[in-house]
Design goal:
The chain has 153 residues and is α/β, with parallel strands linked by helices. It has helices spanning 16-27, 59-78, 93-104, 127-134; strands at 5-9, 39-47, 83-90, 108-113, 117-118, 121-122, 138-143. Helix 2 links the parallel strand 2 (39-47) and strand 3 (83-90).
């Protein structure tokens, strides 16, 4: 599989590090690839409520994104990989990720899935299924291990 560009959406949560580490490992220079660089694009999508205009000033949400992207840049610096970062505002996070992947022509999206539970079962939420269904490229998902709850007898 030839990978020239990777898109990594981040939310500003701990599990983002796994997705980013995976992207950086793939993008790291290797003998086989020579000087060919793999482009890593890290994005944070601020979801704008429908009641607000799309360009609304959502300072708190943008601040979370800026922090997440700054962490990504710091991680990339140590890995000898060049990373592009961008904050987007959109009505739908999933649609923004797919649109960005299409527009940039990326070969791979690497996403982190949090361990959300709904009615006692793992729930992938809304964004991940949307991206899996509509992505123009491969999608790799990393998920933290489930917490094992101790049984009380």
């Amino acid at each position: 599989m030839n990978i020239h560009s990777i898109l990594v959406p981040v939310k500003g949560v701990d599990i983002d590090k796994e997705a980013l580490d995976l992207a950086l490992a793939i993008a790291a220079p290797t003998e086989r690839r020579g000087k060919q660089k793999v482009r890593v694009v890290v994005i944070h999508v601020v979801e704008v409520p429908r009641a607000l205009p799309l360009d609304a000033d959502l300072a708190d949400a943008v601040s979370v994104g800026e922090n997440a992207l700054a962490q990504a840049e710091r991680a990339a610096h140590g890995a000898d990989v060049q990373v592009e970062t961008e904050i987007l505002q959109a009505r739908s996070i999933g649609a923004a990720i797919v649109d960005e992947a299409t527009e940039r022509g990326v070969d791979l999206i690497i996403m982190a899935a949090q361990n959300h539970r709904r009615l006692g079962e793992f729930s992938p939420g809304v964004t991940l299924p949307y991206v899996l269904k509509n992505s123009p490229c491969r999608v790799w998902v990393t998920r933290a291990p489930q917490q094992v709850e101790a049984s009380v007898y």
